[in-house]
Amino acid sequence: MSQLNLLIKNGRIVDPVNNLDMVADIYIGQGIIQEVGPNLTAPKEIDILEAEGFIITPGLLDMHTHLREPGFEDSEDIESGTRAAVHGGFTAVACMPNTKPVIDNAAVVRSILARAEEKGSCRVYPIGSITKGLQGEELAEMGDMVKAGVVAVSDDGMPVANSYIMRNALQYAKSLNIPVISHCEEPTLSSGGVMNEGYMSTVLGLKGIPAAAEDIMVARDLILAETTGARVHIAHISTKGSVEIVRAAKDRGIKVTCEATPHHFSLTDNSVRDYDTNTKVNPPLRTDEDLEAVIAGLKDGTIDVIASDHAPHTIESKDVEYDYAPFGISGLETSLPLMVSNLIIPGELSWMQTIRKTTYEPAKILNIKLDGIRKGSPADITVINPNSDRKVDTKNFISKGKNSPFDGENLKGWATATICNGTITSLS
Amino acid sequence: MGLHRKDLLGLEELDIGEINLILDTADAMKEILGRDLKKVPTLRGKSVLCLFYEPSTRTRTSFEMAGKYLSADTSSIATSTSSIVKGESLVDTGRTIEAMGIDMVIIRHNSAGAPHKLARELSSSVINAGDGQHEHPTQGLLDMFTIREEKGRIKGLEISIIGDILYSRVARSNIWGLRKMGANIRIFGPPSLIPPYIDELGVYVCDSMEEAIEGADVINILRIQKERQVRGYFPSLREYANLYGMNGDRLRTAKEDVLVLHPGPMNRGIEITSEVVESSNALIEEQVTNGVAVRMALMYLLLRGGKISESVKSFN
Asked: Can you give the pTM of this predicted structure?
């Protein structure tokens, strides 16, 4: 690929990695950041991006993505998923192991990395499974997978119901210095549920998933984290109770981190009203009270990371009765504008806080080295136009998954350009 | 005037005027049912299809007869004998039906919201004949019709709904409809089968059977599905009958003119004893007759509209 030569003028650099928040120019030569500073001049032939009023950040990292390959390529594959990622402003994704075959051994890890090298538009960090085949019974070969390149383990989508296995997994992962990403759901309470249990499930006659199903497992995993000293990362936290449990655990010094998704800080179970299956997601869209607690958790740092839980599905699999539709929202291409529109513009989070939760924090959790916007490093940059105002149109998604409850909604703050490893991978 | 809507999906979205229109129209339809020759040509040339994804005897037959009495051409699809077992989606089934020129689809489905999906997809009228735990609007309407016919009004009545509220679409449609018409509603059942936040629908949750029965003008007993016990919602059918069943002793503590309703099919000896079923307070068979009248009214209002007196009475 041709190496990028570009001068980005007068953008506001928000870089939590290097703790920068200033208006300056960035000169990229041969794909490498040659200089960062005010009033830079560059060779005449070079392209200039006038970025006044734009936000320039290190390339965003989504630590919770389902790329669906291998096995479910009709929903997404590594090529389409990574193209969707850069279209959404991300230069790296960590992909979940609920593929077919499951990412539960080094061979699958290596094949994903090879496919990503060959077809990918951004960096791909595989996450291995905790248990073989996501069955919750026997530990997967974590040591082997770490050598092959996984950055964490998770049985995402399937809770590890057996507490004994979970404890062993935590001890084992601790020795490998990787986090265990826990999908917290007590299956006997959530079984058969398709939306949040509450007033709306009563009115709509749909089976509910109580908040307690999440809270119980968060509490269990934090108790196990404390007794083992391992690192637990709670995926897609969605309830007020869970946010409070994590906050208390952090106060006690337990090694826990957690993430929230854009849909959980943007929508409530009121959206299920018309039985639109694009609102069916696990954990389910919760109540106003829960949404407020998630935002409060993002503000005070209880919630470390914002991650998309990008879960693409085919049109036909979602075009069915609510009960029969699969869980999931195609999120990579709306994640950033949802953060801007629903957190930054209303004044809930600053740019620095928000970008920190999508660069520095997830990288720290996954032990990924980020250079940020620093002289001498390969250019890995997202350019955001905070004022770009556009209607979400799923027909324009690059992802194969058109399943979004935000279709038709006006959002602000879209990515204008994504530069990944010294190459422009997306430009609008 | 007809109903200004294409479909009837639930009672939640109806207003008082629409409910009264349906009940008044059903009055006229019931008169037809009392005739020796129960057939009027009102819907001649209209086609009605019953699409049932769940087993049903009374509701499907009731719709079929309602259509036949109005001279509509009715047919039925039961899922066990259709291409649905070959894996056809609801949307594709709906489009296939519409391509055959069907004017109205009556759908029963085990999944809440399925009729809504079909209604969005089709230009034909859709009537919800029961969707999951959501609504069963024609049952709600026939219960209201029965109450109004017996009591002369609905407003101000004390109405108790007893049993498995959580899984009951009958309960939800009754609550929406009766609340709109000004009745006071009490509910009672095993605490594990009372849905969360049900009180926000404007109902009072009773603490005991005594509280549910005392002073009630109408008691609507819901069917309990035996599988609920297996899933741990209550300890045994015996205990259910003891704590939540309607029996003769309890009936004698109720108002003398209390109406006892049951949507059927009944589990005699569990939620209701034979003594209650056979008592003069029980209107269970009358409910079935009224169901046909209400369904005739709806088919007429959705497919034809116009003044009922002109189109029905002119064929006397």
From this structure: 0.95
